[in-house]
Specification:
It is a single chain. The protein is α/β, with parallel strands linked by helices and 204 residues long. It has one domain: Spore Coat Polysaccharide Biosynthesis Protein SpsA, Chain A, CATH 3.90.550.10. It contains seven helices and ten strands. It is globular.
Length: 204
């Protein structure tokens, strides 16, 4: 039986350090969001949605767009909104600024949920820190996230002690992505230039 899955791209950040909306910065002639959507196009999901408070900016993509359920709650609020609007048991939440997400690694993470339905979160750990915006969440996470939001405790992984988490340590994820590129995110113009160079090298 396949795992019922929604892919949610979280595009709710303010992009303050980039100086412009990260989702639409150009890489190899395409906006970053287009690279993301190509990489997640074939994960077996039922839906692909975008979590954003600027729906008019994303309307041309032709995907379901959802705003924050509770305003001004940061990345954790975005995860909550993704789960709230998801029509499936599991939701893969990805930040919009990760141009090198790795489909085989994502498939592996989804497969772990399929193998153990008791898991609430499947998340890689990089340098001992969970990548909460590169994780699969079960609907069971809604209530514990909600209680954190209502207490204004907005650390993305703050609710993890309240749920069953399966961590992927480096020896498990590294074979899928030897260079760790999947976790490279773009916060600054300098990081964008690095990503452009890396993408050029991959395409040569």
């Amino acid at each position: 039986m396949s795992t019922k899955l929604t892919v949610a791209i979280s595009a709710g950040g303010k992009s303050s350090r980039m100086g412009t909306d990260k989702a639409f910065v150009e890489m190899a002639g395409k906006p970053l969001i287009a690279h993301m959507l190509e990489r997640v196009a074939d994960l077996g999901q039922q839906d692909t949605v975008i979590i954003t408070n600027r729906p008019t900016d994303y309307a041309h993509l032709g995907l379901p767009l959802y705003g924050d359920v509770i305003a001004e709650k940061g990345a954790l609020g975005g995860i909550y909104s993704a789960l709230h609007h998801s029509q499936t048991e599991y939701t893969l939440v990805l930040a919009c600024d990760m141009p090198f997400v790795n489909p085989p690694l994502l498939q592996h993470m989804i497969g772990l949920c399929q193998a153990d339905p008791t898991l609430d979160v499947v998340v890689p750990r990089v340098h001992d820190y969970p990548e909460g915006l590169h994780a699969v969440y079960h609907q069971r996470c809604l209530a514990p996230i909600r209680s954190r939001l209502e207490a204004d405790k907005l650390k993305v992984i703050g609710f993890y002690p309240d749920v069953k988490v399966r961590y992927l340590e480096e020896p498990e994820w590294r074979p899928f992505d030897p260079q760790g590129l999947t976790f490279f995110d773009l916060d600054t113009p300098e990081e964008l230039e690095i990503a452009r160079r890396m993408l050029g090298e991959h395409n040569e």
